[in-house]
Specification:
- By secondary structure, the chain is an alpha/beta fold.
- It has two domains: 3-14 and 89-221, Rossmann fold; 16-87, Orthogonal Bundle (DNA polymerase, domain 1).
- It contains nine helices and six strands.
- The protein is globular and about 50 Å long.
- The protein binds 1,6-di-O-phosphono-alpha-D-glucopyranose and magnesium ion.
- Magnesium ion binds at residues 7, 9-11, 44-45, 171-172, 175.
- Mg(2+) binds at residues 7, 9, 170-171.
- Substrate binds at residues 7-9, 23, 43-48, 51, 77, 115-119, 146.
């Protein structure tokens, strides 16, 4: 294993609750909708615009807004979201992640971020992790979102590595599909039934380690 390509939300920090709160605020204040709690999981790893399109579909409102209005609504949600994540600090890094980053760096593993979030650099700065990563793939430069492999391929390319030498790290079904489509080894955190396509699934981020990543990579390549 030469590289580890990380999803952000749900792997490095838990921003899903802030995304959901911001979407809920937009839905109730601007769209007259109440979002069911299931949207918090459903929108994980899904881009800003596609998330909004799914919300509009849920409310049967897709045809009511022009493309320009959809962009405005998405920008408004991002405003709510940015306000919410302003309070993030290193205390919001998920358990075991700082240790894992240290272990991977000790073994000269390149680290890159493959998040659907355009806010990834801001979030990593708030967490004090920005300088630990060798690269952050830019989601606005890739054509297809997760489950397409594009963002993970961009993450490997950004650290000049062949995808087959990389482990991708995810918490979402669409993200695991993206990793496998990129021909990487997938390590996931969460429900093993839901994330069954991954090469290894652990219950918490504290179960991640260099040894687990290396062993899973070795096995999946043979
Ligand atoms: C994250 C979240 C998604 C969010 C997307 C875009 O993805 O899981 O819910 O819609 O980023 O975020 P933004 O509006 O900040 O660009 P990931 O890939 O880090 O799990
Ligand atoms: Mg995620």
């Amino acid at each position: 294993m030469k590289g580890a390509i990380f999803d952000l939300d749900g792997v490095i920090t838990d921003t899903a609750k802030f995304h959901f709160a911001a979407w809920s605020q937009l839905a109730s204040e601007k769209l007259g909708l109440k979002l069911p709690a299931s949207f918090e999981t459903e929108l994980k790893g899904i881009s800003r615009i596609e998330s909004l399109e799914r919300i509009l579909d849920f409310g049967g409102l897709r045809d009511k807004y022009t493309a320009e209005q959809v962009e405005e609504l998405a920008a408004e949600k991002n405003g709510y979201y940015l306000k919410a994540i302003d309070t993030l600090t290193k205390d919001d890094i998920l358990p075991g992640i700082t240790r894992l980053i240290g272990e991977l760096k000790e073994h000269d593993v390149k680290l890159s971020v493959a998040s659907a979030s355009k806010n990834a650099p801001v979030i990593l700065k708030k967490l004090g992790l920005f300088d630990k990563f060798d690269a952050i793939a830019d989601p606005s430069k890739v054509e297809h979102g997760k489950p397409a492999p594009d963002i993970f391929l961009a993450g490997a390319r950004a650290v000049s590595l062949d995808p087959k030498d990389c482990v991708g790290v995810e918490d979402a079904v669409a993200g695991v599909a993206a990793i496998k489509a990129a021909n990487m080894t997938a390590v996931a955190v969460g429900d093993p039934e839901e994330l069954g396509k991954a090469d290894a699934v652990v219950p918490t981020t504290d179960d991640f380690s260099y040894a687990l990543f290396e062993e899973t990579w070795e096995k999946s390549r043979n």
